[in-house]
């Protein structure tokens, strides 16, 4: 697979840089100044980049922690759960 549109694995692109690059691809497509082949390539690159950015967001979401108050009133770090707060608090006690 080609990797012409971005840096290699040794210099992974930041989320912000990827988002900026995706915005540029969208702008290029919206300008309607690309040839058909260029537009298809930009679209393919955009779809791949969008998936990479989505994956990065998923990883970041998994790392988020929400602060809650413990029994002593002090904030404690608690892993974010995506099941509407139905985590097993008893297992941590």
Commentary on this structure:
The chain has 93 residues and is mostly helical. The protein has a domain at 9-63. The protein is 53% helix and 11% strand. It contains three helices and two strands; from the N terminus they run H-H-E-E-H. It has helices at 15-31, 36-63, 89-92, and strands at 65-69, 75-79. Strand 1 and strand 2 form a beta hairpin. Helix 1 (15-31) runs antiparallel to helix 2 (36-63). Mean pLDDT is 78; it is low at 1-5 and 87-93.
Trace the largest sheet across and list its strands.
1-2
The helix fraction, in percent, is: 40-55%
| Rg, Cα atoms, Å | 20 Å
Largest sheet: 2 strands, antiparallel
- Count of individual helical segments: 3
Tell me the strand percentage band. 5-15%
Let me know the average pLDDT.
Answer: 78
**N-to-C span:** 49 Å
Shape by Cα distribution: rod-shaped
Query: What is the ordering of alpha helices and beta strands?
Result: HHEEH
Structural class: mainly alpha
- Total number of β-strand segments? 2
Weakly predicted, low-confidence segments? 1-5, 87-93
Topology, pairings included?
Elements: H1 15-31, H2 36-63, E1 65-69, E2 75-79, H3 89-92
Antiparallel strand pairs: 1-2
Briefly characterize the structure.
With 93 residues, the protein is mainly α. It is 53% helix and 11% strand.
């Amino acid at each position: 697979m080609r990797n012409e549109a971005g840096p290699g694995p040794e210099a992974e692109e930041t989320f912000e840089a990827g988002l900026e690059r995706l915005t540029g691809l969208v702008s290029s497509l919206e300008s309607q100044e690309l040839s058909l082949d260029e537009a298809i390539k930009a679209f393919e690159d955009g779809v791949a980049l969008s998936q990479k950015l989505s994956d990065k967001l998923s990883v970041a979401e998994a790392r988020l922690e929400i602060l809650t108050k413990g029994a002593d009133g002090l904030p404690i770090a608690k892993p974010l759960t995506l099941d509407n707060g139905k985590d097993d608090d008893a297992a941590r006690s």
